[in-house]
Amino acid sequence: MTASPEFTYFVVFAEMRTGSNLLESNLNEFDGLECLGEVFNPAFIGHQGCDEMLGVTQKQRDLNPFALLDAIRLQDGQAGFRYFHDHDPRILNIIMEDPRCAKIVLTRNPLDSYVSLKIAQATQQWKLGDVKTKRSAQVTFDPVEFETHVTQLQAFQLRIQRMLQTFGQSAFYIAYEDANDLDVLNGLAKWLGSAARIEKTSGKLKRQNPEPLEQKLTNFDAVRDGMARLDHFNLSRTPCFDPARGGMVWAYRACRSVPLVYAPLSGGHDGDILDWMALIDGSTRDKLLHQFSPESWQHWLRDNPGHTSFTVIRHPLERAHDVYRRQVLHGARENVRQFLARIYDVTLPEKGALPDDYGPEDHRRGFAAFLRFVHANLNGQTGMTTHPAWALQSDLIADIASRGPIRHVLREDGLQDTLTVLGQGTGRELPPFAPPSRTYRLTLSSIYDAEIESLGRAAYAEDYARLGYANWQAGPQ
Predict the structure, then answer these.
(1) Quick one: 475 exposed, middle or buried, by C-beta within 10 A (0-12, 13-18, 19+)?
(2) Each residue of 14-33: pLDDT tens digit?
(3) What is the largest CA-CA distance in the chain?
(4) DSSP single-letter state for residue 267
(5) Between residues 304 and 136, which one has the greater pLDDT?
(6) Are the C-beta atoms of 80 and 371 separated by less than 8 Å?
(7) Burial class (CB in 10 A: 0-12, 13-18, 19+), 255
(8) pLDDT tens digits, residue range 361-409?
(9) Burial profile 101-135: b = 16 or more Cβ within 10 angstroms, e = fewer
(10) What is the H or E stretch that residue 311 is in?
(11) Rounded distance between C-alpha atoms, residue 98 and residue 417, angstroms
């Protein structure tokens, strides 16, 4: 059976742990409907371990996602895919503008999806087909992590809602609880234009964690405090109907003894500055005021008129090199590592200690590929969303300034002098800033040349111009 020509393909907007695998399994029970998985996931194509879909390889998709989109449109019957907030952003406007693309929005209580995600990460069990293989774990509720989770969900769903309104379209909203409801599923098929109906659901997947919430958390009492941090309206239903919320301010750090607050930028040596602020308080960095909610942040501002606020910027090339070294070469940016291997044929050593034969030329080749990736990513030419670690510092500063004035934007290479001067704004003489010296085997100095500078300038042209940076010169690394 074929679907109505009104819709020729479909997309399921969802997130991890919202029941998208279950919904896909049930959609595939309908004759003429086929959900192909997460075909625009930067880490794989369709499903984990797959590197080809409809004759399009993962590398070809990374270079040109529209070829795969065209292949999906041309399938017999009605094909579709699941799309999460961090999937290839290049296709979003195309599918949202296309009235032939049916939009399905799957939602789940953010608290349930957060706890489910934590359990899946702890057990490494992402789907359950047989209850005999079920793995269980109790996890810890982290209010800051939960706020990040909720904000991420809301931001994406509000964006989808806005685009639907702008393009004059509607979507089929389905909740996690209804993803296995036979009547709702048949109604969805009817809405898609399919004449097919099913008499039973797939049965291939089982709900993984049906236990009450208090049995899944080691600190259930912390949930109430976590909820208090949120300006929520109806958290148990569709987040896109919640009122818009301001940007998170939980990352801010403030001294207790003086009205001094620091707004970190991702990709910096925050620990050195936090240790200096702790020295001012005569304490430790974990005792600094932090985990601000929007309300507590406003209270702090009112209670500290004339406060001294600052952030710290780095030379774009040095920041990029530090992010590459810590988060790609030695860290957990597996999606970036895979991208560098697929697109630029750069094979990085296993994460951890570098082998003895990994020298400056290997390091230079990998970093040059990373700069090319950043350039493409910041221009919307990759299938990955932009992470704050390599985003433009000038954009991050603009976001911070939208929540409160930043009185001082300081350069990292002059902090020994400028941080001490901040004491004039606090009415107190501040201790000197003396970060520990660091020694690395592979430094930016060891690989820097005109090409590296050129690649850095191409990727971060706006930061070079807006923040007034010249060519990089050897300094702290």
Answers:
(1) exposed
(2) 988 888 999 999 999 999 99
(3) 78
(4) T
(5) 304
(6) no
(7) buried
(8) 999 999 999 999 999 989 888 888 888 999 999 999 988 887 777 889 9
(9) bbbbbbbbbbbbbbbbbbbbeeeebeebeeeeeee
(10) strand 308-313
(11) 56
Alpha carbon distance 129, 207 (integer Å): 9
3-state secondary structure of 343: helix
What is the rounded distance in angstroms from the CA atom of residue 304 to the CA atom of residue 459? 39
Structure tokens at 53: 């879909």
CB 297 within 8 A of CB 403: yes
CA distance 99 to 103: 9
Residue recorded with tokens 């639907």: 164
Quote the CA–CA distance of 404 and 182 in Å, as a whole number.
50
The C-alpha atoms of residue 42 and residue 62 are separated, in whole angstroms, by: 8
Average pLDDT, the chain: 85
Element at 143 (helix H, strand E): helix 143-166
Q: How many CA atoms lie within 13 A of 329 on its CB side?
A: 23
Residue with tokens 């690649």: 455
Place of tokens 């019957």: 77
Spatial distance between the Cα atoms of 399 and 406, rounded to a whole number of angstroms: 11
Helix (H, G, I), strand (E, B) or coil at 74: coil
